[in-house]
Write a structure and sequence with these properties.
Helix content is 15%, strand content 29%. It is an alpha+beta fold.
Length: 332
């Protein structure tokens, strides 16, 4: 069991004059009207820090807060490997299955939670993120200098990241440049998610074939932008979704009616409302759908290169994948 969490909302002008109950029922549809009524009655919801009632009218600028009781989080790997550490930065290898940030059913069983326990005074700050199902190298800042400098390197595309990806089907071309824009598209349950979109942001990935197999291809993918789920979307865009990806299909959009194990607790940050904040209980009733946080695909952050924020020396790290499917099986 974790320690529970408090979720807050600042009331926007468009929803003022609603009752507290109507606000929660209309904004957070994962729970029924009766469930929200009971939470208010049990003192779990406060208005500007004070207990409230279901019939209280809300005003723009007020703060509503929901004190979610402790819950049992899904089991995830709770260790990570340290590759390098100094006063400014930390380079680690994240295991597949470990979320980086809280979201969905995850609060403390995250990389951020592990870092807060290991570095109580000054937890390292991730400079970039990896999806829950993605393993491999991550760069984190430990000083204000490093945070500012490494963030600028990321913005200026000076940090080089190369991934190993197992894609479905046999890729015929040895090298492919992918420039498919990525943006938000509507989703019937989640509200929206990131996918291939002509109105999205410019995105760039370079794919190189490492090994062709009977029904899949092992590739090295270098990304020059850091859009959410970029490799998953880009490989699907060219007709080769990642092997085992429960969500993205050919074309770079989401699969309809695709089931995903434990999807009700594998929700990630792009999901709307309290799904975004992880307010679902483990046993909440929700459609069994694939979501961005679902695992099953094969993707590993293999190589990472950047300039040290203090010395400006170039630093390069590689991490062999623990997933045997991401290793070469024949000699090229």
């Amino acid at each position: 069991m974790n320690n529970g969490c408090t979720y807050t909302d600042r009331i926007p002008k468009k929803t003022e004059s609603q009752t507290v109950l109507d606000y929660y029922v209309q904004r957070y549809t994962h729970s029924s009207r009766d469930e929200w009524f009971d939470r208010i009655g049990n003192g779990q919801i406060h208005l500007n820090g004070q207990p409230t009632t279901p019939e209280t009218l809300i005003k723009s600028g007020q703060i509503l807060s929901y004190d979610r009781p402790p819950w049992e989080e899904p089991d995830v790997p709770l260790t990570f490997e340290i590759c390098y550490e100094d006063e400014d930065l930390l380079v680690i290898v994240k295991p597949s299955g470990l979320p980086v940030l809280p979201g969905g059913g995850f609060l403390e069983n995250t990389l951020l939670g592990l870092l807060k326990r290991s570095y109580e005074q000054n937890p390292p700050i991730p400079i970039h993120r990896l999806g829950r199902g993605t393993s491999g190298l991550m760069l984190l800042a430990r000083s204000p200098l490093a945070k500012a400098n490494l963030t600028k390197q990321m913005t200026d595309r000076l940090i080089q990241k190369v991934y190993l990806a197992l894609v479905s089907g046999v890729v015929k071309r040895d090298r492919i440049e992918i420039h498919q824009p990525i943006g938000k598209i509507a989703h019937p349950v989640l509200g929206y998610l990131f996918a291939a979109s002509p109105d999205g942001l410019v995105s760039e990935s370079h794919l190189e074939v490492l090994e062709r197999r009977s029904d899949s291809t092992l590739c090295a993918v270098q990304i020059f932008t850091g859009r959410p789920h970029q490799i998953r979307i880009h490989t699907a865009t060219i007709g080769h979704p990642l092997v085992g990806d429960p969500l993205y299909e050919i074309g770079g959009t989401y699969k309809l009616n695709q089931k995903s194990p434990n999807s009700s607790i594998n929700l990630m940050n792009e999901e709307r409302g309290m799904l975004n904040n992880g307010m679902l209980n483990r046993n909440d009733s929700r459609p069994d759908i694939a979501v961005p946080g679902a695992c099953g695909y094969h993707l590993h952050a293999h190589r990472l290169s950047f300039r040290h924020p203090r010395s400006q020396a170039t630093m390069t790290f590689t991490a062999p994948p623990s997933n045997p499917l991401l290793n070469l099986q024949t000699t090229i």
